[in-house]
Amino acid sequence: MKKTVFTAAILFVALVLIVVTRTFLFTLPPIPAAQPSDLKIDPEKTASCLSKALTFKTVSHQDPNQFDNEPFISFHRYLEKTFPLIHAALQKETINSLSLLYTWKGTDTTLKPILLYAHQDVVPVAPGTEKEWDHPPYDGIVSDGFIWGRGALDDKSSMVGILEAVEYLLQNGFQPRRSLLLAFGHDEEVSGTRGAHGIAELLASRNIQLEFILDEGAVIVKDVVPGVTVPIALIGIAEKGYVSLELSVKTTGGHSSMPPEHTAIGILSKAITIIEENPFPATLKYSAQFFEHVGPKMPFARKMIFANMWLFNPLVKKILSGSPELNAGIRTTAAATLFNGGVKENVLPTQASAVINFRILPGETVSSTIEYIRKIIGNPDIQIKPIGPGNDPSRIEDTRSKSYEMIQNTIYSLFSHQEMVVAPFLVLAATDSHHFAALTNNTYRFSPIVYHPEDLKRPHGTNERISVGDYVNTVRFYYEFIRRFDTL
Ligand SMILES: [Zn+2]
């Protein structure tokens, strides 16, 4: 007995030693020395260019017949006037009436081109929320150090920022060795089937393979990850898949004075409860790299946990499951977004339907998601039908690639004055970049905009705005990135 207690004590001490040693060794490699950017930018003039771009109501619609082309066409005219050097030196093509592709031919045509992508369209302002905006969403107001309006974050700051950077490069006499493509879709917010997809088809028809594509989808976050006080620049190396499923059930109706045990609404509600109570299995596989970079910046107790994921795996899953933002990074999520049923308060419903939106983790697919839902509901009376084809999750890009390193080093050069962590990230929302998947092995997502917790709801929400400083950084980022990438 004594011997067993002794052995257990030795094992416990050994375990503690391993855990503590691993915690002390859990550090980040030194940050490469970075040359700060010497580009001179006039913040007022630059902010004014973006603020005017926000006055064009380039709202996209699912139904092409409802699409109002006019604001897009006026926006294009505005771009021609604002960026004269680009419109003189680059080749411009219009795809499916509204999407834009600019080609800046490099001097070495044996090199694969790079593509910088952003979208022109914005989501509408939710009816009834206009009055909640501190400044009207389409007035292009610059006030209190911010540029206000729909599209300030998503995604006109990227689009106009790319053009502004290229205009500066032309002004400064830069001539790329490697061809540079600038592509701006017009229907990203409604799945990009005409815009990004059309551009990708055109490039494929010309047999163009891309060295690299950079899109929106990941930003710099501050005070968003509990315990981490330094800003974290997230580089999106993959994105989740997407599908919405319509669940419906039909029953015989009748008088509500003699109801069956479950009405159509009751049957469907039970199915939704089952989905909510049986979340998809969690895996840390796709957030492990993120925590390898961010964990060393955490307070000691948390750092110990993330340095020893082999031991604390169940605990980590439990901690992450408690936060909607972090939970979304470790499993496929389900959100019941629409519910419909019944016609009158004293009539039994003959049918009920609901829509559940799924964001699919890499490793799973649209069809495995449908299979999982069918199995857990286990009720053949409930019809399950996907709305549209959905997207499988993207490929996961390599964090050891030259492209990743180049984005990382450009970020360090911009923020060389402050401590910052750069971390690979699984993008939770869907972007247009999946349309280009066949054209390159290097798709990354990043915008150098700093989001505090209260900013996470601004894109697609009320009071969308970007600080003038962040916008100037956005221009500087693209400028430096294009120059650096060209030396590869
Ligand atoms: Zn967007």
Could you say which small molecules are bound to this protein?
Answer: zinc ion
What Rg, in angstroms, do the CA atoms define?
A: 25 Å
What kind of sheet is the major sheet?
6 strands, mixed
The structural class is alpha/beta
Broad shape: globular
Per CATH, the class of the largest domain reads: Alpha Beta
Q: In DSSP terms, counting alpha (H) and pi (I) runs of 4 or more, how many helices? A: 14
Mean pLDDT: 93
Secondary structure: number of strands = 19
Main sheet strand line-up: 1-2-6-3-7-17
CATH superfamily of the largest domain: Zn peptidases
Give the DSSP E fraction (strand runs of 2 or more residues): 15-25%
What fold name goes in the CATH topology slot of the largest domain? Aminopeptidase
Provide the number of structural domains.
Answer: 2
Can you tell me the residue ranges where pLDDT is under 50 for at least 5 consecutive residues? none
Task: Report helical residue fraction.
Answer: 25-40%
Describe the structure.
The protein has 488 residues and is of the alpha/beta class. It folds into 2 domains: 43-237 and 398-485, Zn peptidases (Aminopeptidase); 238-391, Alpha-Beta Plaits (2-Layer Sandwich), CATH 3.30.70. The chain is 35% helix and 20% strand. The protein contains 14 helices and 19 strands. The chain has helices at 2-25, 43-53, 70-82, 84-89, 156-171, 195-205, 264-277, 288-294, 300-307, 309-321, 324-327, 366-377, 402-414, 468-485, and strands spanning 91-95, 99-104, 114-119, 141-143, 146-148, 180-185, 212-215, 220-221, 232-239, 241-250, 254-255, 333-341, 347-348, 351-360, 383-391, 421-427, 443-445, 450-451, 465-467. A 6-stranded mixed beta sheet has the order 1-2-6-3-7-17. Strands 16-9-8-18 form a 4-stranded mixed beta sheet. Strands 12-14-10-15 form a 4-stranded antiparallel beta sheet, covered by helices on one side. Helix 2 packs across helix 14 (468-485) and helix 5 crosses helix 14. The relative contact order is 0.18. The model has no long low-confidence stretch (mean pLDDT 93). Bound molecules: zinc ion. Zinc ion (ZN) is lined by residues 119, 154-155, 188, 216.
